[in-house]
Amino acid sequence: MGSSVISVNDLGKRFGMYSKPSQRLWEILFPFIKTHGRQFWALKNVSFDVKKGGTLGVIGRNGSGKPTLLQIVSGVLCQTSGTVEVNGKVSALLELGAGFHPEFSGRDNVYMNGAIMGLTRKETKARFEAIADFAEIGDFMEQPVKTYSSGMFVRLAFACAINVAPDILVIDEALSVGDAYFQHKCMNKIIEFRKSGGTIQFASHDMDAVKRLCDSTILLSNGAVIRSGDPAAVTDFCQSMDM
Amino acid sequence: MTNVKIFFYFMKNLYAVRFMLTAMAARELKATYVGSFFGFSWAVLNPVCQIAIYGVVFGIFMKGAAPPQYGTDSFFLYLVAGLIPWQFLAQTMFATTTVLLTHKNLVKRAAGFPCEVLPIVTVISNLVSQLVSVALLFAIVIIFTHRASPSMLLVLIHVFFLVVILVGIGWVLSSLTVFLRDVPQVMALLLTGLFFFIPVVYSPTLVPKNILFIMKLNPLYHVIEAYRLACLAGRLLPLPDMAYLAVSSFVIFGLGGIFFRKLKPVFAEVI
After folding, report:
1. Domain count, chain A
2. Which residues in A lie closer than 8 A to residue B24 (C-beta atoms)?
3. Domain span holding position A218
4. What is the pTM of this model?
5. What's the ipTM?
6. Cβ distance of A75 and B269 shorter than 8 Å
7. Where are the alpha helices (DSSP H) in chain A?
8. Is residue A42 included in any domain, yes or no?
9. Which phi and psi (to 5°) does residue A78 adopt?
10. Which pLDDT tens digit goes with each residue over B37-87?
């Protein structure tokens, strides 16, 4: 038994639906005031563990709570109940290029992205070659990001995200970006990352990718885990459910 | 007690991201001037033009008299030494209101991004312009009085306190704007009011005693006073005022931090 890198226990996430954001403010500042926001549980009683070097697949239909779960694990959202323990640096391939500034060159943005991910200038410099090689945008590296095609943007963003030396990679359909060649390249990079002992949480609609990549899988439906375990069994169950 | 604990944890995190802080401040500064014709010269041009406008209106048309404690009878110098810190604090306060909204992408989408750095980044990038302005202020004082004294550098102590205050206020304003989009509008009005509720363009001797007492509760009053004393007379504030400024700036910083930390968990959902 290896140690758990991601440990989620009885996780719940409630979204309040307020007619005005200011209602929320009063609720936080003055807990004794009850506003009547409607509430919606996006996740309920979700528990799972991912061991070091493990790859967990998350599948489920649209609206089953996959992105919410990934956002909580990567620390963008906070849970309402339960505990989430994440040991290590997370790099999320959720929204690629979130920190990019359109007016600055690719190079500037690579350094900036490194700084946001907690790298010093020196550390980013050491990785710059690898990032530039992977992104394959050539001389555009010195051009402002606003001049990039969407493919170039995503390639550079992916290259940045995967080269910051994360311990944990959280991936949400990131492989549906770029052309077939680039998708293949990303997949290889992810497999390489896993071989080197990295931990992955992977949400997808692509059952084949899940079977190929993951060593365990959970199936979400309406925010609850309804099946978990061996990827082949869970994906088969998911497909049979759709029929 | 838990608030104090949360606050210390918050501070520890800030220290851990200091590289990010400097890199982002440099970028923000560059972004302000990138593509503009005069580029970074705006950092000098802007205060020079402001000083010229206020100098003509309040220094010539509505000429007041400088109170005696600054060792100069030039109302113009009195005016400039108050305007420079005012510009810094007004611009920074206004800029921090919208900082979380303009960096929506980072708040909402970047994994584990500590958004508490954003108001600090705004303060730091404005601080750079302020330091240029302070150098300009020194030059003006030296040209007008033909005296240069190293005790002018005492101003830097007050720049420090002002930065501490502005970060604290920045945390409050930026997080409030997430929920109440009216904050920038309200702030624009408040700043206009505040401009006249601190003796920037007039002498405090014109203010009735009991109103002056209320004015002095505002730590920003003492910051502006301190800039003048340091630049024009080479002195520090009287000890009680200095102590009040020091304590209140750290109280504002601490309360601002706790306030921000309290609202932070829901930013990503509301923005």
Report:
1. 1
2. 112, 115-116
3. 52-241
4. 0.86
5. 0.78
6. no
7. 21-29, 66-73, 106-116, 121-135, 150-162, 180-195, 207-213, 231-242
8. no
9. -105, 145
10. 777 888 888 889 988 998 888 888 887 788 888 877 788 899 999 999 999
